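Narrative of activities, Objective 1.

The group set out to show that a structural description can be obtained from nothing but a protein's sequence at a throughput compatible with the screening campaign. Below is one input-output pair from the validation batch, recorded exactly as produced.
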Amino acid sequence: MVTLVSENPKIWNIHVRLPQNPLKNLNAYVICTDAGNLVIDTGFNRDECREDLWGGIEELGLDLSRTALFVTHLHSDHCGLAGDFAQRGCPIYMGEEEHRYIMESDAADAWHRLEALFYSEGMPPGTLSNQADENQARKYAPAPYTVTTVKDHEVIRLGDLEITCLHTPGHTPGIMTLYLAREQVYFSSDHVLFDITPNIAIWHGIPHSLADYMDSLRAVRDLPIRMTLPAHRQVHEDVYTRIDEILHHHDERLEEIYRTVKERQDEPRLTEPGLTEPGLTEPRPTEPGPTEPRPTLTTPGTPSAPAVTPNAAPARAPGERGGSTAVTPDAAPAHALGEKDGAPAADCTPKCASVCAVACPWDGLSGIDAYRIASHITWSAGGRAWETFPPTQIWFAMSETLSHLYYLVDRGKLLRIEHDGAFSYRTP
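Output recorded for this entry:
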């Protein structure tokens, strides 16, 4: 289904189905001008998404020799079909920070590391194994493709139309949203959604994903915006009210998590037979994720769409394109452990020191683990009980719980305690 959402500039929305996924659909936007076209995001690397996206492109009659793709971030529902564009010779743009994060990640090791972390934070092995089988980010990841990177506030030009790239970290480390300043149109990707709240998770090497996200929301709130085009669900105009609602939502979630820890921190930690040194040995899940070799850098050589040219950023020589490198987006999993710089706190293991701002002399105290915290807080799940959540929903809930817990630990509101390789949380 193709819908015209703006007459001037002409912007179309291709409705791309996301089967068996709570997001339901991706809005793949197409900016059409006499000078060329820009497609924004793709859907998963699966037949249903391919049918919808390329059916819409055919319906619009796009000349692919004058069409480029912009990938807003590494999640497979946004970049899954990027390889299709590469095969057809279309240039592909991606934010510099997102690209750097992907290239510095090792797929299989990153998935193992994340599963080990979730195990150490209380997730049962059976739950880990179940989600590994159903994780769509793994099953429908893109084939490798080559990108041209763009910097924060760099401009892509389509004739007279100027498209500003904005780095809005939080949902992912390097997510880029797009802004038409003169027309006051904002492509929010997953940074701002209206029907649902974007998942804010934890990422390897990113210590403050939740704080980054809230700062990015406030930055967008300062822009003059007439129309906001989100990546999922419905399109709405009032982005300012929605940003305030999302910020309030996270304040409430932080308070709910703090209250849950305070009320339940002395309950005994539940264990299962066979648990051994969480976080220190490989957990029992099946395949840890993509097994392709880590992509290697290639020499610049991304095909050019004559009508689509990036504006030179201050650090880039006039007319010089960004570096083109082969990537496998989503090679790194969403939400691996955040890390901080600095020496470990006294009596803490290096893992504990990554988010613990104080010494940990509480060996033997139970606290409450992140998995149990997640099971006790409120989720928008259609009234379903935690025990009936699909495995992937538990995965996202766990990761979002951890991003809020780390935020509270970082600000001294909670303590993160390591005992025999397992982590729990207490009030000071």
